Amino acid sequence: MFDDSNPPSPSRGTSAMSPLIKDAVKDIDWNSPQTLPTPTKPDPRESPWLALSLIVPGLYLTCERTTEERMRLVVMGCRLVVKMNADVDEAPFNIYAYDDDAATQVMKAVDEETFIKRLVAECTTLDSDRALLMEPLFIRSVVADDSPVFDIAAYFEELCSLIELVLSRRKLLETEYSDAAKSGADVRLPNVVVHCKAGVSRSAAIVIAYMMKKYHISRAHALQYVQDARPVASPNHGFVAQLTLWESTR
Questions:
Q1: What percent of the chain has a predicted confidence (pLDDT) above 70?
Q2: Hey, where are the domains in the chain?
Q3: Is 174 exposed, middle or buried (0-12, 13-18, 19+ CB in 10 A)?
Q4: Could you report the per-residue pLDDT of 67-108, keeping only the tens digit for each?
Q5: Is 196 tagged catalytic?
Q6: What pTM was computed for the model?
Q7: Cα(246)–Cα(188) distance, integer angstroms
């Protein structure tokens, strides 16, 4: 049982940003005005929880069960998975990739430097010659309680930066992708999937924080925008309070 009568002071979203990630995202421009895309409406034929909800081009929000179909993520071009309901003994940085010795895909824990360097490399060019089986998934796992007193803001800066690390490179690859697709090449732009157990509270809070930072919009606007695409998205009241504080620092 959590006592949320005296929640801890939120971190304002700055405490979990490592020097390695800071260096990798140092050239990202967060200040240029960005046009907010038209919200994507959910498919009424899909389960609202199981849906792979498209928030903006390249960014999806969903539940854990949907991400268990890893080849589905690979086929859609997913590069980064942000997992907000990791087990306490789960490594924070993992790569799911083909292993020659095992002759199948395996999950391997890696250090942060390896994770960042390989992620950047994978999002820098399109490889039309590589088989789908060889496509890696980079998984950032966070042990986060869906509790109003959990300091989820400690991860806002890092996870927003990782998401933008992929999506900014996706933007740079759009012309190359268009040319390759016209020639019949089988290529995919890099995507990001954020999830927790149900895709309702923890993961939604991260996506809302990203939308606020990227598009310079309010917490209320970002929440409504995300809910337009995923109606079940509803961060707990403690996370909403931390997002409100995050808004005051933007």
A1: 93
A2: 19-26+46-249
A3: exposed
A4: 998 989 998 999 999 999 999 999 999 999 999 999 999 999
A5: yes
A6: 0.92
A7: 33
Interval 9-38: pLDDT, tens: 555 444 457 898 999 999 999 998 899 999
| Rounded-to-integer distance, Cα 47 and Cα 91, Å | 30
Reduce the DSSP state of residue 235 to 3 states and report it: coil
Residue type for position 106:
V
Q: What share of the chain is helix, strand, coil (3-state, %, to 5)?
A: 40, 15, 45
SS3 for 72-123 is: HHHHCCEEEEEECCCCCCCCCEEEEEEECCCCEEEEEECCHHHHHHHHHHHC
Q: At what angle do helices 219-229 and 202-215 cross, to 10 degrees?
A: 120
Q: Please state, in angstroms and rounded to a whole number, the distance separating the CA atoms of residues 58 and 79.
A: 10
Q: Which class is 19-26+46-249 in CATH?
A: alpha beta
How do 191-196 and 78-83 pair as beta strands? Answer: parallel
- The single-letter DSSP state of residue 145 is -
Q: What is the DSSP letter of 128?
A: S
